[in-house]
Amino acid sequence: MGSPRRILGALGLLSSLVLSTYVPAAGAVAASAPATTATFRELPRVPFTQRYQAVRHGGLVRASNSSITCRKEEAPQAEPCPEVRRGASGVNGDYDMFYTEVDKDPDTYNSTRAELKIPQGAKVSYARLYWGGNLRVGEQKPPEDSGRVLVAEPGGAYKEVLADTVVGHRTDAASDAYQASADVTPLVRKGGTGMWTVAQLNIAMGRSEAGAWGGWTLVAAYEQPQEPLRRVSLWDGFEGIAAGAGQAAAQTVELAGLNAPAGSSGRIGVVAYDGDRGNLGDSLTVTADSGRRVSISDAENPFNDIMNSTITEFGQSFVRQPEYMNNLGYDADVFDLSPALSGGARSLNFTFTGESQGQFLGVLFVQTDARR
Known about the structure:
By secondary structure, the protein is mainly beta. A hairpin with a 4-residue loop joins strand 18 and strand 19.
């Protein structure tokens, strides 16, 4: 996002989000509203709620990509667009932004791919697709088109996917931001491992002070008897991390009932919108019930610029088409959670602070070892 900007200024400070990881006797929870082919509900703020949880031998995998990138520098201080795509600092409001298209289909105007790696012999127990972006940049996209995307499994043809739950949709003086999602479990069970393509995200192109951003993430939980017993949890919502760096603008998510033994391994995945590379102040810290506090970071995500427009896993990129390093307002990262679990944990607090100009938080997914 360009500077200065007003997005999220009107959101103010939001109350903490307290989430329980209680697992009912059946061992898993999957909640979603019935799909509709005509309309979907919208709310400017969607509090985080548990979407899926299970304790099983297996884990979580995901595929992600952004759907729009820079086309031309429009601000005097802007780094060349090719350098930004390779990872140089740059904010979307400094560029003319245009759609990324990899499918060569004349009937789509944006499409990107990413690899979903489901372990051999595993069974997909749940899968959900998330997509979102900014509807107002150099043009205004109609919000009623936000609840629909096209998805193609590896080697397959496009299928229409419709949002099946409340769509987060927030407008202000600078932007028109949203996130939608849908249960795609049957599709992922059939399609399996390989390159997944998502097209026709409803996002605006051009240039504005707020800038263009948008992308998608596919999260899949799987069962694999040969893997360790793990607790896997997926939450989603649409929350603003208020403008203004520091703890005064922090949001906290508490995960209770983990019962992770000492020396456990784990991971956390985060999807966020409108974080800028080089605008400092955004961070993620994890505090265990023992009092151990760990700042999350890795080679591509510094502790004070954690939402910096990257799509990484443990600091490394993975197979995507295209594979840009600076995604200009779209973050979908997986971090190592093991340091926070070294002494074991019954509960964890995840605290997010916003950069000086704020961002949106859309998805959290967590995997931890579980006691037998």
